[in-house]
Amino acid sequence: MPTRNFGGTFDPVHDGHLAIAEAALVAQSLVEVIWLPQIFPAHKSAITPIQHRWAMVELAIAPYPQFHLPAPLEFWCNSLGGDLSTLSTPTSLSKLSTPLTPTSSTFSEPIPPQIMSTPDYAIHQWQSLKNLYPQSNWCWILGADSFLTLPRWKGREVLIPACKWLVATRNQWKPHMELLEPQKLSESPELQNFQQVIKEIHLQGLSITWQILPMPSIDISSTSIRQSFQSRQALSSLEKSLPASVQQYVESHNLYRY
After folding, report:
1. What angle is formed at CA 8 by the lines to CA 50 and CA 187, rounded to 5 degrees?
2. CA pair distance 67, 24, nearest whole angstrom
3. What digits encode the pLDDT tens for the residues 28-39?
4. Domain 2-220 of CATH type 3.40.50.620
5. Torsion of CA 126, 129, 133, 137, to 10 degrees
6. How many Cβ atoms from other residues are within 10 Å of residue 219's Cβ?
7. What ranges in 1-149 are assigned the alpha helix state H?
8. Among 180, 193, 90, CA closest to 150
9. How far apart are CA 39 and CA 78, in angstroms?
10. Model pTM?
11. What is the DSSP string of 143-206?
């Protein structure tokens, strides 16, 4: 069963993320895309609390039946080798008897400190997904910037060969551009960087299967959206970048106003 997971901070999730996930759906025959907001990214700081980021993702993907989120505490505790019996049972938005409002929360109770203080590595996420979805063959969706760091990921010797890697770029790509002959690579500095990543991975004795997602160019970033809220730019400029439900959530919770 082909399943793809899409990890990231999603701070906030935006239309570009949705476009990437949709491109992944059509790139190959698959069942679903599982979204994985990172609770405590190992290489980032000053991020919005996971409760807000998780709620925004769930709002954004609600219209898409093939997009899913795992049960949050079960997923994180599983990935960290914890014991669910010591934790409170989380409440999933999909099981709420009343519609989601801007003041609703994905979590019925605070996240336990042992989870909040533990770095959230991709290898832990994948191991947890294997336990939750044991019959799946995994494809990992990630952006170009993350792909460039792949040769240095924790647990890469296990993770890289176990998944097919789908790389989303901000530039428009045609199908199978990664298969260009070496003499044509000079036409694309970005593709040269990707090929250098593959070379580094091979030098580590690892095999990798990868593909550039064919999709239109994306001129949206979470950073620019946060800056727009911080500078109180006209909200009309954000309507083209954010799902309406996410924009409402951000405004209702006064996020990104620091």
Report:
1. 160
2. 11
3. 666 789 998 887
4. yes
5. -20
6. 10
7. 15-27, 50-61, 72-79, 113-116, 122-132, 144-148
8. 193
9. 13
10. 0.80
11. EHHHHHTGGG-TTHHHHHHHSEEEEE-SS-B-TTGGG--GGGGGG-HHHHHHHHHHHHHHHTT-
* Sequence ranges of the domains in the chain: 2-220
- What average pLDDT does the chain have? 77
From CA 52, how far away is CA 234, in angstroms rounded? 22
Digit-coded pLDDT (tens) for 228-248:
888 776 555 666 789 999 999
Choose among 226, 248, 225: nearest CA to 55.
248
**What tokens were used for 15?**
């239309």
d(CA 191, CA 184): 10
Q: What phi-psi label fits residue 107: left (phi over 0), alpha (psi between -120 and 50 degrees) or beta?
A: beta
Question: At residue 242, what is the residue type?
Answer: L
Helix (H, G, I), strand (E, B) or coil at 222: helix
Helix orientation angle between 72-79 and 122-132, rounded to the nearest 10 degrees? 110
Is residue 225 within 8 A of residue 14, CB to CB? The reply is yes
